[in-house]
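Posting this for the archive.
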Amino acid sequence: MAKYTGPSCRLCRRQNMELFLKGERCYTDKCAIKRRNYAPGQHGQGRAKVTDYGVQLREKQKVRRIYGILEKQFRGYFAEADRMKGVTGENLLSLLERRMDNIVYRLGFASSRAEARQLVKHGHFTLNGRKATIPSMLVRPGDVVELREKSRKIVAINESLEGVVRRGVPQWLELQKDAYRGSIKALPVREDITMPIQEQLIVELYSK
């Protein structure tokens, strides 16, 4: 699966907000937003007029970048959310939250979604006792995600677990830190997603 390989901090500056793409670095003074709080590029400090379409596009790009998804896959998630019962925008966010790499990040095993994606692809986790290597696979209530025995001495994972208190674990997830295990208690709802996202703008963009 293709992925973005460019500079992550540039994406945060483009969105003019912290997307927490670099893990612990985002909580320090090295964060690009704290150092250069303007858009990247030659005209980054200029005043550009933003149209309604531009606002909608920027919101869609923000959500894509938060979850580390390229356009084709994101459109697939939107199409699936549109077929589901309920509010399309909320369905979309729920699907993105249920991704395996996001679960690993939310439980605190990784300091960023990019790191979580790599850990999953390298086979460090099991889902319901079976090895899971697909970052995009969706979890369901009752599923159990566990760090494999041979991976429990990895320094980066243990350091990330120590910092989970600062980020917090969503209410729809349960972490058993000492057992290196997490479970999905329920499907995520809109109130569980604290990032400043206006999903209705994305629905309006794709509905044109």
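Residues 4 and 188 are 26 Å apart (CA to CA). DSSP finds ten helices and five strands in the chain.
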